[in-house]
Amino acid sequence: MRPALALAVLLPLLAAPRLAAADDLVRLGEDVVVAANAVVDDVLTGGGDATVHGHVRGDLVTVGGDATVGGRVDGDVVTTGGDLVVRGDVRGDVETFGGDVQVDGRIRGDVETHGGRLHLGPHGQIDGDGSRALEHASSGGIGAAFAGFAAKLASYVLLFLLALGLQTLGRERFEALQGAMLRTPGRAGLAGGALLLGGGLACGVLAITVLGLPLAALGALALATTATVGLAASVSIVGAVLPFEGLGRRDAARLAAGTGVLFAASFVPFFGGLALFLATAWGLGALLLTRAGARPTPPGGAGPYRAPARPGASPAEPA
Fold first, then answer.
1. Rounded distance between C-alpha atoms, residue 45 and residue 227, angstroms
2. Nearest CA among 107, 48, 104 for reference residue 77
3. Handedness of CA 232, 257, 261, 258 (dihedral sign)
4. d(Cα 283, Cα 171) in Å, to the nearest integer?
């Protein structure tokens, strides 16, 4: 069974342990240990760690916990939100989401890591296709650091291009977002934060059922898309308020400056991630409050992206 398919098929069992076979180990909120002389089929954990000293004839799947293989796993190993250590023998493929992989034993299949690093110990071995490229990427030296820097830089360049495209092609709607962010920053931030957390939780709940998996995927895609648009709007505001006269009214220069500030902040532990979350929530909330920029921004005073008042209307009069 391919790792991604294993995750899609086996996750529903975490929500209904009684559906698992008699020889399966399924645990929610607690750790699982397969003793050295034990033989089981599949091992599935949610919110707990899994340690294998014995023999797993099927797959090993962990969600929100670490996994350690000191014995033998005949099938695939899939981890989500946890680290994986292989000291024994994995005869299938390995796929991890959001965790590091330490290989001190043998993996006979392929290894794929998403959002984590692969470390190959002096006695570690990967037999699958692409193992040489994975060893190079996991060396932990200058090459790996440069690859991570280049990947992050590319993502922020794409963010800049998205913001520039929105600013150019949909100026009125984009400026409505910017106006809402400046006039009601607290309200926009709270609305966006609630949407990010609530949407992420809803996608996670849907993902534990077979019927809900497609909806979870669509919801995650929609949330990621709207969050990126909101972040693009935040970038433009950051660039507009920077005290550099050379930026003037040049959209590209301000967007580049705002993107550069967030890019630099992303390297600061904890605070960089917090700043990114707050900036995303701020713009996402404005996107929600203005209905994607379709709702006119109330008139305001001076400042970047403040909507001008109608001719003949007082500053306090709604537009």
1. 31
2. 107
3. negative
4. 15
Closest CA to 279 of 258, 294, 297, 307: 258
**pLDDT of amino acid 20:** 43
Q: Give 283's contacts (C-beta < 8 A, 6+ positions apart).
A: 177, 181, 188, 192, 229, 230, 231, 232, 233, 234
Who contacts 194 (Cβ-Cβ below 8 Å, separation ≥6)?
Answer: none
Task: Please give the Cα distance from 109 to 96 (Å, whole number).
Answer: 14
Which pLDDT band holds residue 95 (cuts at 50, 70, 90)?
confident
Q: Which two tokens stand for residue 246?
A: 């050379």
For 177, 223, 272, the CA distances from 295, given in Å and listed in that order, are 9, 20, 32
Neighbours of 145 (CB within 10 A): 10
Q: Which of 60, 58, 56 is nearest to 48 (CA)?
A: 60
Q: Is 10 a residue whose pLDDT tops 70?
A: no
The pLDDT mean for the chain works out to 78
pTM: 0.53
Q: Could you give the angle at which helices 171-183 and 271-289 cross, rounded to 10 degrees?
A: 110
Contact 110, 130 (CB under 8 A): yes
Which H/E stretch holds residue 235?
A: helix 212-241
Tokens of 189: 């931030």
For 250-265, what is the HEC assignment?
A: CHHHHHHHHHHHHHHH
Beta bridge partners of 126: 107
Strand partners, 32: 50
Query: What is the number of alpha carbons within 13 Å of residue 287 lying toward its C-beta?
Result: 23
**What pLDDT sits at residue 89?**
95
Q: Which amino acid is at 195?
A: L
Q: Give the single-character DSSP code of 306.
A: P
